[in-house]
């Protein structure tokens, strides 16, 4: 597998990956998450132009992304906004590789850690990230930027299910 910057032409494929990756949320009574629209093309383009949209591709097929990650700096950290893997390629450490790539980019930019927000009771969310070295942040540890992200998530109804902010050095 190879990780590289996303191209403008691939942005619709990233939306398709996220739609497919959302499907398993139905098993947890989270149909609204499964049906949620991925980021709009213009939003994905902003991440791409900023150099913070990466795709994972097979070594023998550079033209078809298997997964993607978008991120942005938030309060001295690189905040993982979204990481999604095509379900047919799940459990192959692709998400882990994308997170490692993001950590390398964060280090190059002088950012001290990675952050993300996620669901606590979905196995491929908080429990997965904990296995990768992320730890849940208490309310007092949330930076102003993370508080703003959580408030926006609440406005979109994501707090209907337990969520947490996590950080990894």
TrEMBL record:
CDD domains reported for this sequence: NAT_SF (cd04301)
Domain N-acetyltransferase: 1-159
Annotated keywords: Acyltransferase, Transferase
GO MF annotations in UniProt: acyltransferase activity, transferring groups other than amino-acyl groups
InterPro entries in the cross-refs: Acyl_CoA_acyltransferase, GNAT_dom
Entry protein name: GCN5 family N-acetyltransferase
């Amino acid at each position: 597998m190879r990780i590289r910057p996303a191209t403008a032409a691939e942005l619709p494929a990233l939306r398709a990956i996220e739609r497919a990756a959302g499907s398993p949320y139905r098993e947890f009574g989270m149909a609204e998450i499964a049906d949620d629209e991925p980021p709009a093309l213009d939003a994905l383009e902003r991440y791409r132009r900023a150099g913070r949209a990466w795709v994972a591709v097979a070594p023998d097929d550079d033209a078809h992304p298997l997964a993607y990650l978008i991120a942005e700096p938030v309060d001295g950290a690189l905040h993982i906004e979204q990481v999604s893997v095509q379900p047919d390629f799940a459990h192959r450490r692709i998400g882990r590789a994308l997170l490692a790539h993001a950590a390398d980019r964060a280090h190059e930019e002088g950012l001290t850690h990675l952050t993300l927000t996620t669901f606590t009771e979905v196995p491929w969310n908080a429990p997965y990230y904990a296995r990768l070295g992320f730890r849940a942040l208490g309310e007092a540890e949330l930076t102003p930027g993370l508080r703003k992200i959580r408030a926006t998530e609440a406005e979109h109804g994501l707090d209907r299910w337990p969520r947490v902010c996590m950080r990894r050095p």
